[in-house]
Design goal:
The structure is a single chain. With about 110 residues, the protein is mostly helical. The protein has seven helices and no strands. The chain is globular and about 30 Å long.
């Protein structure tokens, strides 16, 4: 899990603007699928990893176009809702709610 934690930390620390992240997100669904997997399975009990993954997910969803948002799978929503339910941190809960707000518009 250390590699996932480090990778998420680096990605989050870069604070890539949505306009710069857009070509990556729109060109390849793997970042959405990978973030969903981490939120569902990859973090275990590590709250810091789940929190950082939520912040990365927020950036990814904000950068995504309508085509990506329309193709979000039920697993994605299950993962985000589990973060809201678990209340791992105020920041992660707020980010998860913002993800849902942005994603549910489509």
């Amino acid at each position: 899990m250390d590699r996932i934690d480090v990778a998420l930390g680096v990605l989050h620390s870069l604070r890539v603007p949505p306009d710069d992240l857009k070509p990556i997100v729109d060109g390849d669904r793997r970042i959405v699928d990978s973030t969903t997997w981490i939120l569902l399975h990859g973090a275990g009990d590590n709250r810091d990893v789940r929190s950082t993954a939520t912040l990365v997910c927020k950036s990814v969803i904000q950068a995504a176009d309508s085509g990506v948002l329309e193709q979000l799978k039920p697993d994605f929503f299950q993962a985000v809702l589990s973060l809201v339910r678990d209340r791992i941190s105020q920041q992660a809960t707020r980010a998860a709610l913002q993800v849902l707000l942005h994603a549910c518009g489509w």
